[in-house]
Amino acid sequence: MVEYGTFDPETRAPEWRLPAGSCDGQVHVFGDRDRFPVRPDAAYVAYDATVEAMLRMHKTPGIDRGVIVQPTAYGTDHSALIEALATAGSGYRGCGRVDDSVSDDQLAAMHAAGIRGARFNFHPKLTASRLAPDEIRRTIKRVTELGWYFKLQLVDLDPDEVTSLFDGVAADIIVDHMGPLQYHRGLADPRFKKMLDLLDAGNWWMLLSNGDKRAEAEGHPWDDAVAYAREYIRRAPDRMLWASDWPHPIRPVPVPNDGELLDLFARYAPDEATRKQILVTNPAKVFGFADGGGDGRE
After folding, report:
1. Where is the Amidohydrolase-related domain positioned along the sequence (predicted)?
2. Which of 63, 98, 137, 223 is deepest in the core (most CB within 10 A)?
3. Per-residue pLDDT tens over the stretch 125-163
């Protein structure tokens, strides 16, 4: 197993004040290694990324809500995620991994625990977690019946290979990590145009995360991410989300402090109204948070 960088445990406050109810749209957490064993073929593990450590990270900048996404290391065993949601409380939702092996009873238990989405991962380093197109179609049908959203990891992939599977799907669909962009291709990149066109459909969302990771060649302060994020926001401000992607998995380079990532987001969205929409209003809608910080669970 490849050793990757770990998160900075000393989260610093960003240089601006987050609005109340701010949401981190994607974090991963790990449970006790003895109680929650990972898959033998896990691409990475981060046992120090506990739910308690995640909550400490969120406390410093004033993040009140979050979405805990199932790590690929656990496959479809959501035991650790369900326990983490119980610990984190009503301000947190879950996003799971669903395939044919997940029973209807398991789906019901996941829903009761606060899981509201299913993620399909197409990362080139996580091929073991990919599903065949027919299984994806079956999963889409089952998950849609629960009223969940879908989440797509499309890094370094021609998006047409995947997005066509969702033609006609009315559920919300979130694209992770600003889409399958390579910044050296510029704003004329056909993949970027594809992402912008999808946003016009009305049910596609963009997660403004990993802008720093995509911009590794340039390094801090990751200037080449800003133009893409601002264009996404200009195109569909009501369907933008933000995430730290803590603890920053599959990253062999120095890992940024999460306060730095919030300052990068502030450059994406310089005005306070847009920041509040992306951090508070939009995630409340797609993740199902009730007004005033309630849990919004059925």
Report:
1. 23-289
2. 98
3. 655 567 888 999 999 999 999 999 999 998 777 888 889
Structure tokens at 152: 């797509």
How many angstroms from the chain centroid is the CA of residue 214? Answer: 15
Give pTM, 2 decimals: 0.93
Structural domains in the chain, CATH included, are: 23-287 (3.20.20.140)
3-class SS string, the chain:
CCCCCCCCCCCCCCCCCCCCCCEEEEECCCCCCCCCCCCCCCCCCCCCCCHHHHHHHHHCCCCCEEEEECCHHHCCCCHHHHHHHHHHCCCEEEEECCCCCCCHHHHHHHHHHCEEEEEEECCCCCHHHCCCHHHHHHHHHHHHHHCCEEEEECCCCCCHHHHHHHCCCCCCEEEHHHCCCCHHHCCCCHHHHHHHHHHCCCCEEEEECCHHHHCCCCCCCCHHHHHHHHHHHHHCHHHEEECCCECCCCCCCCCCCHHHHHHHHHHHCCCHHHHHHHHHHHHHHHHCCCHHHCCCCC
